[in-house]
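Note to self: user wants both folds in one dump. Writing first protein now.
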Amino acid sequence: MTDLSIIIVNFNNCKLLDECLASIYKNTHKISLEIIVSDNASTDGSQAMIKCRFPKIKLIANKDNLGFAKANNLGLKIARARYLMLLNDDTIVKDSSLDRLVSFMDVRTKVGACGPKLLNVDGTVQRQGGILGKKFWLAKTPAPVNFVIGAALVVRREVVDQVGLMDENLFFYNEDLDWCLRIRRAGWKIYFVPEAEIIHYGGYSSQRAFIPRLFVAGLRGGLYFSRKHYGELVYNLYRLSLILALVLALPIQLTSQAKFKAYLEIIKIAWHGQIPRPVLK
């Protein structure tokens, strides 16, 4: 059985995707792997590059931009390995990092998921937690954590069978937090493994410019996440706080029509409570 299935969601990121794929093959030595690229209707030649440069890769050519969760799920459904890995298209795998992640999971049988140390392009350590979170990304040895981000996340196959795939109500952002929370609630541990290092360009594919669709999807996802995991009281408090914050910020967005419309859309969604009631598994 294959050791590791790597699922990479790509959208118009041909150059970095090429570098990412090359780094996987160059720097993985001891494990067997398969790579699945779920391409969200790229128009920059990404699919042609894969077919030409990496013909062994399984390419899922989506007709539309399906978002992060749904596109990953398509890859997870056809993955064959013992471990399943989500990997961003804007990453560079360093020497033996994937070997070390698989080795760690083989030894720690109660660990359901793990993630590597993420590095900025200049070699400094990239933070993975929130403002109030513990600085686990500075740990020198493997450490238990509440979550690791979906830029590089390895999950045991049995865990996916138990907790299910990613929640497709989350289009972009919060999917990894949701998945990790479900994994922990199912009784599995999540670990940060600093011996494995991966360079992460850090949102290059989503931060080149303000994208109203992603901005709205991200905040809508936050509302959905709070309702799903923390109940109606917390959800409504967050909803009202978000409305207040965006209303106060509206005047400074008048110089950008796109931002102004996006802010108004989120205010409308939050005001009317246009968030589906999650069905917990």
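First done. Writing the second protein, which came from a different request thread.
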Amino acid sequence: MIVVLLIGLGLGGGLALVAGHLYLYRRLGRDLSRVRFLRVLVGVALAALSLCALLAMVLPRKVPEHGFGPLVVVGLMWIGIVFYLLACLLFADLVRLVLRLVRRRCVLSAEQESGELDRRQFMARVVAGVTVASTSGIVSFGVHSALSEIATPEVVVPLARLPRALSGFRIALLCDLHLGPVLGRGFVREVVERTNALSPDLIAIVGDLADGPSEVIGRVATDLGRLRAPHGVFFVTGNHEYYFGVEGWLRFVRGLGIRVLANEHVRIGDGPKGANFTLAGVHDASGGRFEPAFAADLPRALAGRLPEDEIVLLAHQPKQVDEAARQGVGLQLSGHTHGGQLMPLGLAVTLDQPYLSGLHRHGPRSQIYVSRGTGCWGPPMRVGAPPEITNVVLI
């Protein structure tokens, strides 16, 4: 079933890419130049880059084994470039279409009609040139934002039931690393160093660790075993773990000394009679669609907890907050959205998730913090949503 789904998504994405590239050829090849050689050159380049993009959608499972890494990186980069080229061109062409319809309401002479055609051709070339220049600037900014120094914002969260002795407790929140052909061992080392430098009391990794199976990508993730916090390092699954063998990833994470919270909880603090809170973790909201045993089950995760304890929940997807609020969770820590990653894609994300990023109150007692993510998925760029390692301070 999963194989069929992935094939379907690949075919759908492939058709969209082909259609988009045909439109780009019409606007950037045919309209920009009357020189046949240049039009052919643009067509060949677009065809080659389209193939790279298609391969980038299907090769990540085997990239480190078969050495296709550079090809995948080029393909992923081109997907991001195409997105902004198409967005700018389609918007500009829509505006031109509206203006053309307005002008058609005027009665034009034959001479004016001829001049109108020349004007439209000139404007088409101007728009194409401006689009290429604008996209170059956006993409350069996006790549720099994704691959430069990771932000470490501090977010202070007041919790009504948190013991005074634990006020100031610090949780370093990591999520959506998406390790693979683009973000590898060097990126992991930077993440580990910056996280440990925060001197957190606890570290939480909230899903989407990698884009590939553990036996392939695991070699670049081993430095995560150097994460250090007095109260431990914890992990819950995201949807991408299920695409690439969730059981293999859980074995790998446990082998690094990281505690997996699989629909379960632990008490964090000074012991049974001291100051404590409940840290719970559930599987990703999509887990049950892959395997019934991996369905998210918050009531099970909270079974047996002390009712006076405050609850901090690790759950990959923000939409899991509805159940969290019903179960009396004080704070949910999530990721998944990447903060939209490529503006304005955040608008589409909000159709599926209640929150895009930041701290929000949900209901009378619950709060949720949604991280923009630490890595990036697909194109190695971020526009309007820089990566972060969040320093969550409980008070």
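Dump finished. Worth passing along: Residues 158 and 341 are 28 Å apart (CA to CA).
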